[in-house]
Design brief:
The structure holds two protein chains of two kinds. Chain A is mainly β. In chain A, 0% of the residues lie in helices and 50% in strands. Chain A is built from no helices and eleven strands. In chain A, strands 2, 4, 5, 6, 9, 10 and 11 form a seven-stranded mixed β-sheet that branches. In chain A, strands 1-3-8-7 form a four-stranded antiparallel β-sheet, with no helix packed on it. In chain A, β7 and β8 form a beta hairpin. Chain B is mainly β. In chain B, the strands form two sheets. In chain B, strands 2, 4, 5, 9, 10 and 11 form a six-stranded mixed β-sheet that branches. The chains are: A mainly beta, B mainly beta.
């Protein structure tokens, strides 16, 4: 398994500001993902964080709103930009340990709970 | 697009009863299916991963079955305990199309 640390664990933010969430993994991983879980909802994939290249975004998510960095194989950041109350969610980092294989088990961090006022 | 459905949405049972949680998916061309547990306000804990070539996986009191042809997976939890109270999520493939979850309450 993998130990995944996310910071901050929670934050309260003002409308119009931006917040960066950090994800640190205790081992080198190829596959790293960012998810959003809105209140009372299930998880939705935001993007795949690619090491050394631009993130791959899912439909409905754009780089200007959710810029992602992946400087190395153990670390990634997700920024939520120009926040509005609709961005109030839990944001989760996830990693896969099977290299580039899509058959591997995925593990999640504890999540970062953002409340936007 | 893969659609994942979990039934029931909520379940309340007395301690000691066996739990049966259902997950269905629309596209049977999957690589794997994973079951997770989520406690309130927390991240996800992986419970079981079933590869598409497997029919079931077991871990302790947990057993998950997979029937790809019918697009179904079932998670069985034997002899439930109050500590099993949580939301259980199933997810398909490495990009993980998630179901909405089944919230389980085990009454002492």
């Amino acid at each position: 398994s993998a130990v995944i640390s996310q910071k901050p664990s929670r934050d309260i933010c003002q409308r119009g500001t931006s917040l960066t969430i950090q994800c640190q993994v205790d081992s080198q991983v190829t596959m790293m993902f960012w998810y959003r879980q809105q209140p009372g909802q299930s998880l939705t994939l935001i993007a795949t964080a690619n090491q050394g290249s631009e993130a791959t975004y899912e439909s409905g998510f754009v780089i200007d709103k959710f810029p992602i960095s992946r400087p190395n194989l153990t670390f990634s950041t997700l920024t939520v930009s120009n926040m509005s109350p609709e961005d109030s969610s839990i944001y989760l980092c996830s990693v896969g340990l099977a290299g580039d294989s899509n058959t591997g088990e995925l593990f999640f961090g504890e999540g970062s709970r953002l409340t936007v006022l | 697009k893969q659609e994942v459905t979990q039934i029931p949405a909520a379940l309340s049972v007395p301690e000691g009863e066996n739990l049966v949680l259902n997950c269905s998916f629309t596209d049977s061309a999957i690589y794997n299916l994973q079951w997770f547990r989520q406690d309130p306000g927390k991240g996800l804990t992986s419970l079981l991963l079933i590869q598409s070539s497997q029919r079931e996986q077991t871990s302790g009191r947990l057993n998950a079955s997979l029937d790809k042809s019918s697009g179904r997976s079932t998670l069985y939890i034997a002899a439930s305990q109050p500590g099993d109270s949580a939301t259980y999520l199933c997810a398909v493939d490495y990009k993980l199309s998630f179901g909405a979850g089944t919230t389980v309450t085990v009454r002492a």
